[in-house]
Write the structure tokens for this entry.
Amino acid sequence: MKLRVSGAALLMLSAMALPASANDDVLKQTSDPNQWAKPEGNYAATRYSPLNQITTENVGQLKVAWTFSTGVLRGHEGSPLVVGNMMYLTTPFPNNVIALDLNDDQKIVWQYSPKQDPSVVPVMCCDTVNLGVSYAEGKIFLYQADTSVVAIDAKTGKELWKSVNGDSKKGETGTAAPIIIKDKVIVGISGAEFGVRGHVTAYDINTGKRVWRAYNLGPDNEMLFDPEKTTSLGKPVGKDSSLKTWNGDQWKIGGGTVWGWFSYDPEADLFYYGSANPSTWNPAQRAGPDGKPIDQKWTMAIIARNPDTGVAKWAYQMTPFDEWDYDGVNENILADIDIDGKKVPALVHFDRNGFAYTLNRKDGELLVAQHFDPAVNWATGVDLDKSSPNYGRPIRVKKYSTFANGPDFNTKGVCPAALGTKDRQPASFSELTGLFYVPTNHVCMDYEPFKVSYTAGQPYVGATLSMFAGPDKPEHMGNFIAWDAAKGKIVWSKPEQFSVWSGALTTAGGVAFYGTLEGYFKAVDQKDGKELFKFKTPSGIIGNAMTYIHEGKQYVAVYSGVGGWAGIGLAAGLTNPNDGLGAVGGYAGLKQYTNLGGSLTVFSLP
């Protein structure tokens, strides 16, 4: 097998040379290309596999090798894990975990079925999804909808410990995959639409005891921000960097939750994640005492923290004083990239706000920021002049400012819609091309804020939305693109009828895989986007493609099970166009192409 060692592969090799700075077992399992031992593929979250049996020449011959029904409907996000001869699947609520023996005709070895209070379902913002389980040291780690963090014996399915991370009665929920770093299990919290104050928390891998908790907004000591040592764009954040940007005590119900992906650089000993929107969606209620916008730090931000202590090294806010629900929770992919002739330890982030950011992952220096859909119109760009007082800030267009237009005014034609140019469906970085392969949404919206009062456990949204395809290309609502993160340019773009809500996978065979909301699983050439294979699965795909080797043969697999924010109308049986935070009307046509389901489809060459 011929491999090109660069970018994220170099990061992984560096990690293997520094076992004290990571979990040894996670490094061991993810360094074996025959397995898929981590939801993101590896610590760098590249979703790239060095397997190359399936190539651009033969991928068109793929056949269904086997299928498996999960027994649960609603949206199936995430992907299975493969460790050794075992495959581990996760379902939407009630978050069953199923262990299959690949050596014994996919026999069910065990199933862990949590007993959760169904009252958590109504406070799950955008379907009952789960991004998957994590594996380390013979344990499976599950983050349940009710915020229970559970360690399960990977051989027997026995529950080893359980810790409760939040309170669903306040709107706090869990949907993300944990990350295992050293002896810690790290998770976030969902619920910004219920006024939840966002945080990340570390638990001891063996006992489940809470080690530290770091909030994303509030006092320095609770955020674990050092006013002098924690930086933003190269400068110390200073004392009360968050409190100074909130009106009174509003930060206590201020959002900034964490429900996306985590990545980790063992050499820098930093883990990275994004924070979500400020609460409420009505920006007028978050203005300062003088009635002017204030940043609401550190919502809508990328934050780099030390896994041992939780202390923040740096932070960068993409959308200060958010007016459109442009959460910053999307994945942060770590790769070493050539920029202006220099190899840069980069972090690449495709934000909901429609801009793709390339930063130096060591210190948070902003290097590139460009929109990755031509329809983006709320801002003309990001100020990259380091001498400017607005360095790093978006250059807004007043016409599309829901704050400037005021409450009860319907601001029309804002692009992207609240679900962003890309939501949590993860992109992939290919070692072959040095490009990023990105599932995107080509969707705009009308946005009308209104006054809302906070009540614990009740929706705290304060805006009515309607969504629709971008006016320049109304015949499609999504694109699958190849992105040059050094130049900030689209290399090629493949249109899709609906948003591409499935996570991408790239391989050394030169293929990029992804799924569509109608249910097609597709393979395209990484060089030019030429479609090489497609297969209609039983339901719409919002899961993430993965690959592994079993008995010498390469397999590619993906969940089908329509749902998530884009598919919430089908998943929850909603018909009012403004329901689902505006998504129901935008994706009303989806019901003509697919239906509910919950299954895994596994492909291989004949």
The helical segments are 8-16, 24-30, 220-223, 402-405, 568-572, 583-586. The first strand starts at residue 48 and ends at 49.
